[in-house]
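Quick one, probably user error.
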């Protein structure tokens, strides 16, 4: 196999596969160039070693992902032009040297919220390419929420016929008309074929797509499609406001059966060993004590835990693990196999790790990329408090208070791109980059190799030109672009 093939511009591919390319410098690269898989290279998965000498490029990797990383590093070393879509004829230079490398964390994730604003399939595929270039390896796709259902489920066509579309979005600036939305219809969904294509595209790049079907809150779009799923049965619309809707799922066997069918489809389409059931921000106001009692539960507060246990058990029958937002830690009887996404700071993740859960660190204080990037008055996306690229670079995924014997429970970290205020692929670019590049280094590099002093220079001199070549509309370090 040759991992260089799919990643490099064509003339370079010719080089990497043994074609001729004359290079006229001391750091000349000649043929042949090879990639070898050697599981004995390193105890670390995804490890690789790259040797560049005047005689050629040689990469050894412990596994196929490591081979892909070697090719990605090689592309970085070729310079920004190697990131252009167009073929570039001419000579390429590589510095001679050795790279021995492996990731610090196994879960190097990004959440993309395609529910609040739909992103077309082509944008998701492009985003996967950008993730791969940054050696990120988990795409958490937030597919369902109050404001939209993006996952086609053949058994329940109204989920996407109705649940994928809303009348408008709340922007806070509605001049006339309905004060709750801007009157611009919004929607879209992924067909089963689209999702299979996304999963396969990701797999080729050694990225796992973790699907999220959020229960029992964040479910108003599903209830709009099938009102009988709701706790009151009253008809509702796909929500056009932001925030947390009061319309939760009814705690009944019928609703569980519905979601089991949804999840049967999800596990058929997605190959991820982990499926996210959400479990976050669940209002209990629409549930009645008798409903809880009918399920043998003490109070309505126990209903979210019941959903998680029941549907998580169903996923387990399919051999899949459940991921839940850290709110799930509030519930008794949580299976120790449940993976916890620690978003309300690091405390919940620390507690979960100590209690024996595997954890993905996602703290909103550090890695929520929907947050504004400065206090500048022209900052176009004024969400929350400011988080700069340097702030993200300074993030440390292992909480200081986590005892050492629980460190291994932290599988890694994940950056969140919630899209309430990101209504186009360009806005997603702007929010994501270059902060995601800083995050990628946080989850990849050994802690002692992190270099906050040198990062701004490396970013400006080496990485932003690559993003330019890739056509990424990132936020410039010197301020917002109008
Ligand atoms: C909290 S993180 C949420 C999301 C929002 C986000 C906005 C989490 C589990 N819930 O639904 O989009 O804040 O920053």
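Nope, works fine. Designed sequence:
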């Amino acid at each position: 196999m040759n991992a260089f093939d799919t990643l490099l511009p064509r003339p370079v591919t010719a080089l990497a596969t043994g074609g001729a390319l004359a290079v006229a410098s001391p750091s000349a690269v000649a043929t042949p160039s090879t990639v070898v898989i050697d599981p004995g290279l390193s105890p670390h998965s995804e490890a690789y070693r790259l040797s560049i000498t005047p005689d050629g490029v040689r990469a050894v990797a412990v596994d196929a992902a490591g081979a892909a990383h070697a090719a990605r590093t090689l592309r970085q070393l070729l310079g920004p032009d190697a990131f252009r879509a167009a073929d570039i004829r001419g000579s390429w230079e590589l510095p001679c040297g050795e790279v021995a490398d492996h990731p610090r964390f196994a879960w190097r994730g990004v959440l993309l919220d395609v529910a609040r604003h739909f992103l077309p399939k082509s944008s998701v595929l492009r985003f996967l390419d950008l993730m791969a270039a940054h050696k990120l390896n988990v795409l958490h796709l937030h597919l369902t929420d109050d404001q939209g259902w993006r996952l086609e489920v053949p058994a329940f066509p109204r989920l996407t016929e109705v649940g994928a579309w809303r009348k408008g979005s709340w922007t806070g600036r509605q001049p006339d008309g309905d004060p709750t939305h801007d009157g611009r219809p919004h929607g879209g969904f992924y067909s089963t074929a689209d999702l299979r294509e996304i999963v396969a595209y990701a797999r080729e790049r050694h990225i796992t797509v973790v699907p999220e079907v959020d229960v029992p809150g964040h479910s108003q779009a599903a209830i709009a499609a099938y009102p009988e799923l709701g706790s009151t049965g009253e008809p509702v619309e796909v929500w056009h406001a932001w925030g947390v809707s009061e319309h939760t799922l009814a705690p009944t066997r019928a609703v569980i059966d519905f979601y089991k069918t949804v999840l049967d489809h999800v596990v058929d389409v997605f190959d991820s060993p982990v499926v996210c059931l959400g479990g976050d921000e669940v209002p209990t106001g629409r549930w009645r004590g008798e409903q809880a009692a009918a399920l043998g539960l003490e109070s309505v507060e126990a209903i979210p835990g019941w959903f998680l246990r029941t549907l998580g058990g169903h996923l387990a029958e399919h051999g899949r693990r459940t991921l839940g937002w850290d709110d799930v830690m509030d519930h008794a009887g949580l299976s120790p196999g449940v993976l916890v996404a620690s978003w309300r700071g690091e405390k919940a993740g620390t507690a979960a790790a100590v209690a024996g859960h595997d954890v993905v660190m996602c703290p909103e204080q550090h890695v929520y990329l929907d947050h504004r990037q400065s206090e500048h008055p022209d900052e176009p996306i004024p969400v929350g408090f400011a988080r700069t690229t340097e702030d993200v670079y300074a993030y440390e995924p292992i909480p200081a208070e986590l005892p050492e014997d629980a460190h291994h429970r932290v599988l890694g970290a994940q950056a969140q791109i919630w899209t309430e205020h990101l209504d186009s692929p360009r806005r997603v670019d702007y929010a994501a980059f270059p902060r995601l590049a800083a995050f990628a280094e946080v989850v990849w590099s050994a802690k002692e190799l992190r270099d906050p002093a040198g990062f701004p220079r490396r970013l400006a001199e080496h990485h932003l030109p690559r993003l330019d070549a890739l056509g990424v509309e990132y936020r410039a370090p010197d301020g917002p672009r109008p």
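The pocket of TNX is lined by residues 280-281, 325, 343, 368, 370, 418, 420 (CB under 6 Å).
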